[in-house]
Prior knowledge:
The protein is of the alpha/beta class.
Amino acid sequence: MKPRRDLLIGLHDVAVGYDGPLVLSDITVDVCRTDFTAIVGPSGGGKTTLLRVLLGTLRPVAGRVERRPALRTSYVPQLETVNWDFPLTVSECVLTGITRHRVVPWPSRAERAAVGALLDRLGIGSLHRRHIRELSGGQQQRMFLARALMQDPELLVLDEPTSGVDATTRHEILHLLADLHAGGIAIVLSTHDLNGMAAHLPRLVCVNRRIIAAGDPDEVIMPLVLEQTYGARMEVLRHLGLPQVVESPARWATLRKAG
Length: 259
């Protein structure tokens, strides 16, 4: 794989396991300053494990990780992993994103102002006193984005940011992430949503225990690549200039007639 400019993180022949069989092997991939990348693949194929290696929270058992010194990264977890009964308001949750050492245990006036500004920027400023479980799925995702942005990241990593949300919310999150990327933040996310999410991003990485393919959607969303990634034949057609995946031949024939 040809090296790219403005490298933030590079993985070279990386292998990863959890005290057992390898989850990932022969992983060579890079993340650059201008990237907006989706990692796609089947459940159990290693997407979240790859994110953990990129974040530096999981060390590989083999290979080399190249990381730009003092790189600032932030992470947005899957909403399904959050304890929504924990007694936190929206503002308090965002404040937990402050990672630097504190002289006093309570937030400063400047920090509270920064939280308010971020919540306003993400369109949920009026909800700052709500309990976190009182938010919709899209609002919860925006809250965790605000929490991540409190760390002024150069690289934002998200695990399944559109899982469990409706099509309208997915569209809003996609545009919000595009705006953050346009503002200079590199973004890497995992997703199972090939058509609603992945096809709209400029770079895809297909993973199933190894890197199957990496490139733009037209290079990656192809029947042979998808079959190697998911282990099942999938058809691909174009709709409004974007590749679209159709899992069943009958459904594919219906859409082709409609198009």
